[in-house]
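Quick illustration, no need to memorize.
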Amino acid sequence: MFEAKINMNCNEAIAWGAMASGVDLVAHYPGSPVNLVELNVKKLNDRFHGNVQFNNSLNEHVAALAAAGASFCGARSMVIMKHVGLNIAADPFNYIGYTGVKGGMVIIVGTDPGANSSTGEEDVHWFVPQFNFPLIEPTSVQECYDFTKEAYEISERYEIPVMLFIPGRLAYNYSSVEVSLKKQESKPKFYFEKDKERYINVGQQAVKNHKLLLEKVELIAKTESICKSHFNADAKHGILVRGLSYSMTRELIEKHELQNQVHLLNVDLVFPLNENDLVSFIKGKDVITVIEDQDGFLENQLKMNFFNFLKCSVYGKDVFPKYGEITIDQIEAYFEEVFQIEVVEKKSLSVPEIPERLGTFCEGCPHTGSYYSIDSVLKELNGVIGGDIGCSSLAPFRADWLMCMNAGIGVSQGMAQVLTDQPVISTGGDGSFFHAGALSLMSAVHNDINLIHMVFDNSTIAMTGHQPSPSEFDFDHHKFLEGMGVKTVIDVSPYDPKDFIQKFKDELPKKGVRVFWVKGACVLKGNDFIESRRNVIYPTIDATKCGSCSKCYKELACPAIINLKSSPDQELAIDLDRCVRCGVCNEICPNGAISIQNMK
């Protein structure tokens, strides 16, 4: 038995909880803020000589099905994704509720109120009553560990998957966590027991299993209680919270000494709500205030499911915003109005207005040269660039839209069918391509659309922690694309813009689906081309030759090229501490002002 108290964040705590529960298979598609759960399970598996299997899935749909398959055989599984990934996994999750599971199956979803690590925020709580899976929301790092273990127990008790939602602000919190791991005993061989009535969900059998699922959920609502009740249960004002609202609300109640005036109930099992807990909480209240992030899922459940018990006023999203993260200042302002407390005016610093800082690529990133080459051809033609999610979206001024994964090729092929005077190209990384971009490309081929799609292959899923990409290994993209029906596949290097631009110009007037495969490894993971040049090449800018055209500074937008003078004057130089010697600036300089000294 290993026991310890360790400082860790929520990603690590969930991993410890999974290992303590004897997880057998982890399937995931990487996404912040829970992209490090799988990595930490791997570390613990190596440390304690475990036998956990890993499925580095190419999208969330596959991850959900892989985890379910293991659970059907009696293995304990975990599937990990971020909130937008739940959209992709929604189809299988609906059916996994009908079949149920044998081994415990826990679904970890990283949510992101305020869009701090995502392109947008989305309240995925509304999926939960559609799936009819129990949902637990931890309020601390310790609870991430405890509730992961509890989720496996509930999952196997009712043969149903259990979800944990982890918001970004909690995911990156650190705290001391009490953990324990038992020595793993030899596990029985897993076995799939055939059961057509359970697993073949078609027509009336699906309806029958749906009914059984709803009966499970009703039983859980009557039986399982996971909540925290504080202060005066006889108070006329009840405050109902979940997730991150709990700690802020409790802190303010204690700070303003409102303990006798309120009854605070934090619901950890957010779906289904425990009937006894909620009926007891509602009884005798004149006012109930629901404090929660985003759309008002808890408030909605309270009003719908306990309508017959509510004899009081209920406040929630008519007081607090439906967007962004709820803040302690918003809660305190509400308390000030309702409880007539005196809030000490906070001293505000005079902060100058700071212009938005747009994202940019790392020094030497292959996407820098790729977008420069694309812009050089399309800017004079008023061409359209479809953008995708991933590192290629870090510079948002490059693409003409940024939405969800695979929106680059998806939206572009619709535009390409209706635009006659503007060329349209789509872009996306290798991660997006293998996620679902390949299927979108097949659709373009099937519809015989005139479209150029550019795959930025940096051989890794770089944005979320360098998870492996299929192109990192022995992958022949020519055979793969030709097998899909793509007749024209062109290899280009992001570090050779002249060749890239010429080949792009040659292909623009042609017809059909054409794929540019742009190969250039991520500089943060290790790039042999750049590493071979770093210590022997020293580029400089000759100010007497520089014509202030700004191609290297503004159009290429390499962060290693700096302006020594404030605008409108300009004197450019290369910061050699940041420069990785990719050589693209030298290739594109029209004045020969950038020279490269080879110290070999």
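The chain is about 35% helix and 20% strand.
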